[in-house]
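dumping this here so i dont lose it
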């Protein structure tokens, strides 16, 4: 028994290498789109786009190539019943896994968490389909690629993927004068405001609730220095969003 028979009964090593190349190319295309979206502070960044593109490519490979043993080369029919389409199995998994992915996505103000996790579940379903179809090499290869990509993009984050989300809350005595001071401070900190709420109370105080993005989290020392410089600030809090 040779190496090709041990790992994959459908494809030669050269054909399997071609499938590997398709996965790599799909990841590259997903990364290109993800970098552009990430630099525009979109919630779905590089990791999400790579996972989605990689998963879509694997679903396509499984649907197109995983069922050669049940095809009739003479009449173009499938054994069992006329007109059967085994590729529909892959299509149902694609739509079915969406319900599971939706369950791990959460919205907190203007920040969305769980997109990469949902995409990871989706591509994991594709890996399961490939393994179930006997495409062991391609399933193993995608598992290694996705695992390595997740590790590297978390270790060396790019664009908005590397930004820390903070929720800033202030209660001030004179909100009208504080507006300009707050805008200047946010510019100085170099933050991107993704969500903001302002509530003016009847007693004359004003509550500010901001969700911001920054390359690194806003420190306690920075918050204290801001409060010391503005006597109108009655209270302030800074909570990182994980």
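and the seq i came up w/
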């Amino acid at each position: 028994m040779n190496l090709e028979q041990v790992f994959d009964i459908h494809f030669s090593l050269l054909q399997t290498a071609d499938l590997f190349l398709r996965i790599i190319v799909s990841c590259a295309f997903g990364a290109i789109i993800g970098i552009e979206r990430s630099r525009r502070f979109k919630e779905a960044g590089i990791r999400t786009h790579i996972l989605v593109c990689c998963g879509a490519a694997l679903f396509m490979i499984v649907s197109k190539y995983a069922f050669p043993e049940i095809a009739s080369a003479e009449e173009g029919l499938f054994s069992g019943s006329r007109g059967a389409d085994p590729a529909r199995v892959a299509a149902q998994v694609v739509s079915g896994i969406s319900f599971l992915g939706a369950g791990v996505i959460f919205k907190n103000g203007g920040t969305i968490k769980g997109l990469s996790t949902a995409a990871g579940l989706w591509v994991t379903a594709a890996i399961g389909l490939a393994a179930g179809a006997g495409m062991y090499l391609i399933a193993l290869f995608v598992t290694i690629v996705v695992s390595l990509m997740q590790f590297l993009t978390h270790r060396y984050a790019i664009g908005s993927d590397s930004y820390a989300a903070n929720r800033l809350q202030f209660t001030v005595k004179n909100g009208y004068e504080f507006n300009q001071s707050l805008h200047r401070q946010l510019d100085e900190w170099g933050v991107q405001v993704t969500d903001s709420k302002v509530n003016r109370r009847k007693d004359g105080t004003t509550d500010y609730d901001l969700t911001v993005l920054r390359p690194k989290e806003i420190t306690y020392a920075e918050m204290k220095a801001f409060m010391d410089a503005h006597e109108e600030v009655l209270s302030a809090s800074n909570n990182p969003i994980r």
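The helical segments are 3-7, 13-39, 46-65, 88-102, 115-132, 136-155, 175-189, 220-229.
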